[in-house]
Amino acid sequence: MASAPPTVQDDLNPTPTAGYNPGQKKTLEEYAALDAEDESLRRWKESLGISTSAGAGALDPNAPKLVIHSLSLVSDSIASGGITLQLDQPGDLERASKTPLQIPEGIEYAVVIRFTVGREVLSGLKYLQVVRRAGVPVDRMEEMIGSYPPRAEPYEKRFAPSEAPSGLLARSGSNSVRTRILDDDGVVYADFSWSFKLVKA
After folding, report:
1. Which of 3, 5, 91, 111 has the highest count of CB atoms within 10 angstroms of its CB?
2. CA 14, 132, 95: angle at the middle one, nearest 5?
3. How far apart are CA 76 and CA 56, in angstroms?
4. How many domains in the chain?
5. Are 195 and 176 in contact (CB under 8 A)?
6. Which residues contact 102 (CB under 8 A, 6 or more apart)?
7. What is the number of H-type helices and E-type strands within the chain?
8. Domain housing 102
9. Nearest of 145, 79, 76 to residue 112 by alpha carbon
10. What is the per-residue pLDDT across 164-194, written as a single tens digit (0 to 9) for each?
11. pTM (2 d.p.)
12. Do 31 and 110 have their domain in common?
């Protein structure tokens, strides 16, 4: 008997890493106090923005854990250098889902996200993306973002380059995209939809 086709939920589940144990979560204060007498470790933690001087009193306890500011498709083949979806203002997500991006066919591009970590260290963040055409999955992307401590200045993560499809069939119709960002415990911090249409270069 044939197995059931994968669902959107299945597509957006990260691939498990054999033997990987994410370990116990720690607060920013616990990270700061960890091996406090080790000078080299202290300098390493401060290079990541983790220090006793930047404790909880310096952070907004009501800040979101993660804010995605933008998602960009960066390419030398695009005159402006890339196409950006703003995602951090009211109405941005609704516009992203209803207004397809126009992407030249056949170009090489890289997905770049800008994000801010709010009030605690986020570890093992992953980026998942599923592209569907007429409801059928045609592409899936899974990339490691990494682990980040809180800071006011946004982080930027650029993923490995991809190549856009080309040809008459690729240009007919729009593609819907579902993007999800989650950590190594499976906690979802962002989940949104957008779309794109391939056009002649």
Report:
1. 111
2. 95
3. 42
4. 2
5. yes
6. 83, 196, 197, 199
7. 5, 10
8. 63-199
9. 145
10. 999 888 888 889 999 999 998 889 999 999 9
11. 0.77
12. no
